[in-house]
Design a protein that fits this description.
The protein is built from 11 helices and 8 strands. By secondary structure, it is α/β, with parallel strands linked by helices. It has an 8-stranded mixed beta sheet with strand order 1-2-4-3-5-6-7-8, sandwiched between helices. The longest helix has 17 residues. The protein is globular. The protein starts with a strand and ends in a 7-residue tail after the last helix. The site of D-malate has 6 residues, from loops.
Length: 274
């Protein structure tokens, strides 16, 4: 019997991890991995849309939301170890992964290293490319700016980049929810995750090894992981499907949840239960 509900706590790698678990334990499992610096609540609309047909799990990556931060330095490899140990702790042998941005970095690294654990991938507004020297410089500047000006200013600056320009006027509630997630993330987590991104290895050279169904989605106005980046992954993952989502920037699942969920619900029946 599984424990369905919200904000469930489980110990993974000596760390308390918080997750939401909805649906039925008889169904295919989909694990949602949020972006940075957000938390599991960003998947609310997807969980609602899928829970009648799937077991839908959204968890907080260490340091984010209600999961503990731990003592170790962060890395994408550590996040993957947490994910696989989380699946083990829940007795989940195989799952479908859906990751947005940082969640996609984790999903791409996870399938490269543990291909036997995943039935399909949904890669949203993410990239297989490591940080360029300019991107690394921006990570350092972000850390300095947070130290100097605080998290509220970091949140306000981030929002301008995260959303499509039209969303800044039409999606005030979503902007408020995202701002809330950012300002409630500890400085320690912000610094540790920015350093992990800086050191992140590319996964583009591993894309041709992916043998499971892959759906790639990207907001038309995503400035952080743009459509060209999504196209690069599509060209290198055999039989992958790509969709560009209108009226959305980097947070396509929140900005246009209707289109995002339609694409998800069309894609998921293509996956075979193994
Ligand atoms: C995210 O949404 O996870 C971040 O934009 C990722 C990044 O900054 O590389």
């Amino acid at each position: 019997m599984i424990d369905l509900g919200n904000n469930i706590k489980i110990t993974v790698n000596n760390l308390t991890v918080s997750y939401n678990d909805a649906g039925s334990d008889e169904s295919l499992v989909i694990i949602f991995i949020h972006g940075f610096p957000f938390n599991k609540s960003m998947w609310k609309k997807q969980v609602e849309a899928l829970k009648n047909n799937y077991r839908v799990i959204a968890y907080d990556v260490r340091g984010h939301g209600s999961s503990e931060v731990g003592d170790e330095d962060f890395s994408i490899e550590l996040f993957v170890k947490d994910l696989v140990n989380f699946m083990d702790a829940l007795n989940i042998d195989r799952a479908i992964l859906c990751g947005l941005s940082m969640g996609g970095y984790i999903a791409l690294n996870a399938i490269a290293n543990f291909p036997e654990r995943f039935d399909a991938l949904i890669l949203s507004d993410t990239s297989c490319i490591a940080d360029t020297p300019e991107a690394k410089e921006k990570r350092f500047m972000a850390i300095e700016n947070i130290q100097k000006d605080g998290v509220e200013k970091f949140a306000d600056e981030s929002i301008k980049n995260l959303f499509a320009p039209e969303s800044l006027f039409t999606k005030k509630n979503k902007i408020a929810a995202v701002r809330d997630m950012i300002v409630n993330t500890s400085k320690q987590t912000l610094y540790k995750t920015l350093r992990a991104f800086y050191e992140r290895k590319e996964t583009c050279s591993r894309l041709s090894e992916i043998k499971v169904p892959v759906l790639i989605m990207v907001g038309k106005e995503d400035n952080i992981t743009p459509t060209a980046t999504a196209m690069l992954m599509h060209e290198n993952i055999k039989d992958s499907i790509i969709h560009i989502i209108d009226h959305a920037g980097h947070l396509s699942n929140m900005e246009n949840s209707v289109e995002f969920n339609n694409l998800l619900t069309k894609f998921l029946p293509l996956i075979k239960d193994t």
